[in-house]
Each structure stands twice: as C-alpha cells, then as structure tokens.
Amino acid sequence: PSSLINLDFSSTTVPGFTLPSNLGTSNLQLQQLTISGCTTLTDITQLPPTLLGLYAGGCTALTNSSLPASFPNSLQSLNLSQINTIDTIPSLAKTSITQLDIYDMTTLIKIPVLPTTIQNIQAQNSADTLPYALNGFMDTDLSATCLQTLAIYNDPGITSLPKLPNTLTQIQMQ
User: Fold this and answer.
1) Which of 7, 46, 89, 163 is least enclosed, having the fewest CB within 10 Å?
2) Quick count: other Cβ atoms within 10 Å of Cβ 170?
C-alpha cells in the first residue's frame, strides 16, 4: 500500500528471500527500510525515492553489484555495518546523509565523497579506508559541513586525520 512508511524484515533468513518488486516505485512513500541481519538477501538495487533510513547491517549476502548505483537523494541514515562482501559504497554525494555506520566492514576499501549534511560517522575495523572519504569530504566547503561526531574504533593504521570542520564536537578513537 502507498501509505506504508516503515518496513522491517530484520533477521529474515528464509532461503531466496527478496524484497517486494514494487519497492522502488515512486507511489510508495516508504521512509524506513530495516533489513538488518537478512543473511540471504542478495539485492537492494531498487529503493524508493522517499527513503530516509536504510538499515542493512549484517546482510552478509549483499555485494557491490547488489547495491543501488546511487542512493535516494532523501536518504539521511545508512547502516551497512558487518557486511564483509562490499568493498565500495555507492555514491552518497547527492543524498541528505547525516548518519553513516560502516563498522566491521573489513573488506571496505573505498568510500565516496560524503555530502555536506553528514553529522555522524561510525567506523570500526574499516577505519583505514576512512581518510579517503574524509579527504574528499574536507575538500568541500567546510563552512557548510555539519560533521559533529566521528567515531573510529579498533584501527591501528590511522596516524592522523585530515582538517576537521568547526562543527565537530566529538571524536572517539579507541
């Protein structure tokens, strides 16, 4: 139904599980899609343009080709944590992302340039790739950035960070 705004398939492990085929249609007003722990889900290429939050942490069957070429412009929160079959995150530049969770993505090697709306980044074990994204992010107009929290855990490879925006209020490195 077009009135559906929240869809939660958390921890669905049914063999061959797929998302509804009409999920990417523009008449659906879906705002939140939670598929965390769906270990058999292999495709999320068709996302609705109204999506604000995508929570796909632990969807271990997802790969680079099973992600959309770009995320919806409306997207504000993205969690791809604990997926070790993805090495590149698709474009986020045109999104409204404020929260990015990429912890325990041990195969991640590339994060695209982040939009100026980013407020919180949480990374763990994938943190050695984070400076690439931050360098691109820091090349944007710093007066327009909103980054407030940067949390990087369990990474011995980070020795320095790029110039950070004035909006940053918390850095956690452990």
Assistant:
1) 163
2) 10
* DSSP states along the chain: -TT--EEE-TT---TT----TTTT-TT----EEE-TT-TT--------TT--EEE-TT-TT--GGGS-SB--TT--EEE-TT-TT--BPPB-TTS---EEE-TT-TT--B-PPPPTT--EEEEES-GGGHHHHHHHHHTS-GGG----EEEEES-TT--------TT--EEEE-
Over its length of 174 residues, how does the chain's per-residue pLDDT go in tens digits?
678 899 999 999 899 999 988 888 768 889 999 999 999 999 999 999 999 999 999 999 999 999 999 899 999 999 999 888 888 888 888 999 999 998 878 777 777 777 888 888 887 654 455 554 444 444 444 444 677 887 776 655 556 666 677 788 887 777
Distance (Å, whole) CA 17 – CA 12: 8
